[in-house]
Specification:
Helix content: 10-25%
Bound molecules: guanosine-5'-diphosphate-alpha-D-mannose, magnesium ion
Largest sheet: 10 strands, mixed
Radius of gyration: 21 Å
Strand content: 25-35%
Number of helices: 7
Distance between the termini: 49 Å
């Protein structure tokens, strides 16, 4: 049996993507043609998940507004909004308890059996069925997806043996050392017994507390995969997550220019995404960039490795380069030059 229920963590502040996350949570930012959360939920739905509880904190209303029918990415959505941030494990416990008591549906507690838990900013083509199979074969309490990473310093570093048993889990190992290896991909299969290990009523980190304890007991396992995986939570990785979906690096490839965008015939668009209502005028050049809905790129402007926010305007002949993030409605004057930074 594969799990029917999942908890997706989407309550973070999205600090690294400000100013784009000032008006909306990170998971509502679009990746090519739909919000990040829809890509995440669709991956679970493809695995047989019917019921997803979104664990929310920051700007929770954005989700209800976007999915008034309670359906998203092929699954039913419910929401568990924390009164205050509870950390990654505290949030999972809170969401599981809320779903058990608050749904008014028949059928009891969906988290009294094996379930999925995911970080809500992870896009992957990894084989979730293999993760589940390893979990079941080992009788694990928790099994996590891991992927290889040259610099693990902004991730959780996972050491496991040939059977997959995790001997050590180190969250955000100090950079400088030899921190390359298999990292926590933020995709978990969990037994309900894990919930019992999470102290209620306070902020608890899955990575720094719960997994460390489960590993110590010898019941944390890891699947190694080198499938496509990205955490879309930084400016560079948000750009990359978009570009990868239009340039053939994923299991599916989407169109780079929305049918509802207006692009001049002689504009040049290379490894970039132009979303609905956006316009790119004559002679403009885009590379490695994302133009969010309603963004406007003036004639002859150059935009490289940057994000142009909702309804933002890059004036004619302007240059926006080097991982610049333009917020909603921002204007870059004609001929102005920006190199990195946020506005
Ligand atoms: N509900 C809730 N409450 N959600 C939270 C909270 C909270 O207090 N804190 C973070 N989140 C959500 C975020 O919205 C995100 O979807 C997910 O939890 C992970 O938080 P991030 O802030 O994105 O963590 P990270 O990327 O630095 O590190 C995590 O992900 C890496 C892989 O992408 C860790 O799990 C690492 O071990 C892992 O390698
Ligand atoms: Mg993240």
């Amino acid at each position: 049996m594969s799990p029917r229920s999942a908890i997706v963590l989407a309550g973070g502040l999205g600090t690294r993507l400000r100013p784009l996350t000032e008006e909306r949570p990170k998971q509502m930012l679009p990746i090519v043609d739909r919000p990040m959360i829809e890509h995440v939920v669709a991956k679970l739905a493809a695995e047989g998940v019917a019921d997803v509880v979104l664990s929310l904190g920051y700007r929770p209303d954005a989700f209800g507004a976007a999915y008034p029918s309670g359906r998203c990415g092929g699954a039913g959505l419910r929401y568990a909004t924390e009164p205050e941030p509870l950390g990654t494990a505290g949030a999972v416990l809170f969401a599981a308890r809320r779903a058990a008591t608050g749904n008014g549906e028949a059928g009891g507690d969906p988290f009294a059996e094996t379930f999925w838990a995911l970080n809500g900013d992870v896009l992957t083509d990894a084989p979730l069925g293999e993760l589940l199979a390893l979990h079941q074969a080992r009788g694990a309490e928790a099994t996590i997806l891991t992927i290889p990473m040259a610099d693990a310093s902004r991730y959780g570093l996972v050491e496991s043996d040939a059977s997959g048993r995790v001997s050590q889990f180190v969250e955000k190992p100090a950079s400088g050392g030899a921190a390359s290896g298999w990292i926590n991909a933020g995709v978990y299969v969990l037994e309900p017994s894990v919930l019992a290990r999470i102290p209620p009523g306070r902020s608890v980190s899955m990575e720094r507390e719960t997994f460390v304890e489960v590993a110590r007991r010898g019941s944390l396992y890891a699947l190694r995969s080198d499938a496509y995986w990205i955490d879309a939570g930084t400016p560079a990785s948000y750009l990359q997550a978009n570009i990868d979906l239009v340039s053939g690096r994923r299991a599916i490839t989407l169109g780079a220019v929305s049918p509802q965008a207006g692009v001049a015939p002689d504009a040049e668009i290379l490894d970039s995404v132009v979303m609905e209502r956006a316009t790119v005028e004559a002679g403009a050049r885009l590379s490695g960039s994302v133009v969010l809905p309603g963004g406007r790129i003036g004639a002859g402007a150059v935009v490289a490795d940057s994000v142009v926010g909702y309804d933002a305007v890059v004036g004619p002949g302007a240059r926006v380069l080097g991982f610049t993030l333009l917020g909603d409605g921002v204007t870059v004057a004609a001929g102005e030059s920006l190199q990195g930074g946020r506005r």
